[in-house]
Amino acid sequence: MLTLDTHVDIRWPDPPDPLAEGPMRVDFPKMQRGGLNAVIFIAYVGQGRRDAAGHAAAAERAEAMLRHIRGRADGESHRFCTTPDELEACHAAGALAVLSAVENGYAMGHDLSAPARWRALGACYLTLTHDGHNDLSDSARPQARLGDRAAEHGGLSPLGRQAIAALNAAGMLVDVSHVAKSAMLQAAELSRSPIVATHTACRALHDHPRGIDDEQLDALKAVGGLTQITAVPAFLRPTPEGQRNPASVEDMADHVDHAVRRIGVEHVGVSSDFDGGGAVEGWQNAAETPNLTAALARRGYGPRELGLLWSGNFLRVWRQALTIDG
């Protein structure tokens, strides 16, 4: 079974060497020990000033991170993969796979050529927003420190609609994690390839603004898309006042169960958001990956379903994104 974690952050600007066991929740020794075959490392850019200088700095950071992520792989025991076929060949060869993506369309600014440039560097998706509105879209979590109103664009901006077309043309997936519900539903309607929420949870089980509700789950299914339950404790269950959140792999399995019952196993997956806030009891780092598989197996998910949850569904939507005729 190919185990793919589709959302793992890296430290920047001083990332540790992933070849050595280190302070991060994901490095190559932990992946090897836990049987985590592949990860998508994220070129994350926090939301900042929406002016020419801010956009230029964000673009420079994102592209430096993409180049760094590509350079993490040695081409033999750790390979950088840019297509599903390359990923599957890497797995068949017994090597660990490194992939990349960009988080926050702020890095795009108003440059509609950016998706093609990022794709050339190997990126497979763009998360349209992070916390705080940007020029593409409203965010699920407006930021008062940035002067955000509850909504700014009414979902996607005209530029955001153009950005989705540019992502489709470049063969990059549209990631709607962090995106306001209005924008997510609009993206589902506009995108010519299936959209994906790479790190989220079910609001039906815990009403957190970063989760997605049943109407959104239904919209994902309608377009052949994918929701991936992630290991961020605050998304999975309430935090007792004055205490740490006790979320575990069982809570993740609860959210997987809900999504599967609602839209079918073919539209559900899992991810960690390690080193970006993710880590639950039983899955604290890549070395503990078998614990999540075991929790899902206890719920009755067999080899076929586990394969879909861990990578099969993501590979399907990624292949569809790559075959869209720009």
Question: Which labels suit this protein?
Answer:
globular; 13% strand; 11 helices; three-stranded parallel sheet; TIM Barrel; six-stranded parallel sheet
Question: What is the helix tally?
Answer: 11
**Broad CATH class:** Alpha Beta
Assembly classification: single chain
The total count of strands amounts to 9
Give unreliable regions as ranges. none
Order of helices and strands: EHEHEHEHEHEHEHEHHEHH
Question: Shape from CA axes?
Answer: globular
Write up what this structure looks like.
This protein has 326 residues and is of the alpha/beta class. The chain has a single domain (4-322), classed as Alpha-Beta Barrel (TIM Barrel), CATH 3.20.20.140. It has 11 helices and 9 strands. It has helices at residues 28-34, 52-71, 84-92, 114-120, 158-170, 181-190, 214-222, 233-236, 249-263, 289-298, 303-322; strands at residues 4-9, 38-44, 78-80, 96-103, 123-127, 173-175, 196-200, 226-229, 268-270. The strands form 2 sheets. Strands 1, 2, 3, 4, 5 and 6 form a 6-stranded parallel sheet that branches. Strands 7-8-9 form a 3-stranded parallel sheet, with helices on both faces. Helix 4 (114-120) runs parallel beside helix 5 and helix 9 (249-263) crosses helix 10 (289-298). The longest helix has 20 residues, at 52-71. The mean pLDDT is 97.
